[in-house]
Amino acid sequence: MTPKQLVSHSKFLSLVLRHEPETIGITLDSAGWIAVEDLLAALAAHGRALTRSDLEEIVRTSDKQRFALCPDGHRIRANQGHSIEVELGHAPAVPPELLYHGTAAQFLPAIRERGLCKMQRHHVHLSAETEITLKVGARRGRPVLLIIRAGDMHRAGHAFFLTPNQVWLTDQVPPEFIEFPN
Ligand code: HQG
């Protein structure tokens, strides 16, 4: 597959495994999994014929490790980022003192007032490193890096979850735990 095809298929997989499985007539289980066989059949029926090894290549090369195959390789799901109801079962974890969130400048007034909200997703997404985070913010406008006092949040009783692809998830970040740029 060319890099362009990989990105196109990966984006389509994100769509069906996170947001709109009905687009290709599939249903995910309560933890977001689908049998690889069923997924490949549905993709083929909708003009995206992929082999099993194509799918493995997409999983392996996804820059943010967006997808996971289960240990026996029979099922696949998105690691995070869903808008449909799924129970991912990621283990609660103790976050580092500081985590980061990239957003766009136009959202700052609302975030100062209400904190970070999960919007269409299941959780607020945070990262332990800043580079990816700024790119995430740049998708929506002038990127702004917010520093989250995750250690303080955790001690105050907020739960955090770490996904296999190193995304930190939490329900919401109240404004008092956010360091805003000047
Ligand atoms: C903003 C990518 C106004 C929030 C990345 C963000 C990430 C508020 C947008 C993953 C707000 C939601 C998630 C408030 C938050 N008022 N705006 N109170 N609270 N926002 O896409 O974090 O490529 O749902 O700052 O790597 O941008 O999809 O979340 O700008 O991990 O694999 O509302 O997406 O991964 O946007 O990105 P999103 P996100 P993938």
What does this structure look like?
With 182 residues, this protein is an alpha+beta fold. The protein folds into 2 domains: 76 residues, RNA 2'-phosphotransferase, Tpt1/KptA family, N-terminal domain (Arc Repressor Mutant, subunit A), CATH 1.10.10.970; 81 residues, Alpha-Beta Barrel (ADP-ribosylation fold), CATH 3.20.170. It contains 6 helices and 9 strands, in the order H-E-H-H-E-E-E-H-E-H-E-H-E-E-E. It has a 3-stranded antiparallel beta sheet with strand order 1-3-2. Strands 4-6-9 form a 3-stranded antiparallel beta sheet. Helix 1 crosses helix 3. It is elongated, with a radius of gyration of 18 Å. The model has no long low-confidence stretch (mean pLDDT 95). It binds ligand HQG.
The H/E string reads HEHHEEEHEHEHEEE
Q: Please give the alpha-carbon distance between the first and last residues.
A: 45 Å
CATH architecture classification name of the largest domain: Alpha-Beta Barrel
Query: How many DSSP-defined strands?
Result: 9
Short description:
The protein has 182 residues and is of the alpha+beta class. The chain is built from 6 helices and 9 strands; from the N terminus they run αβααβββαβαβαβββ. Ligand HQG is lined by residues 64, 66, 81, 103-104, 107, 110-111, 114, 116-117, 119-121, 125, 136, 140, 167.
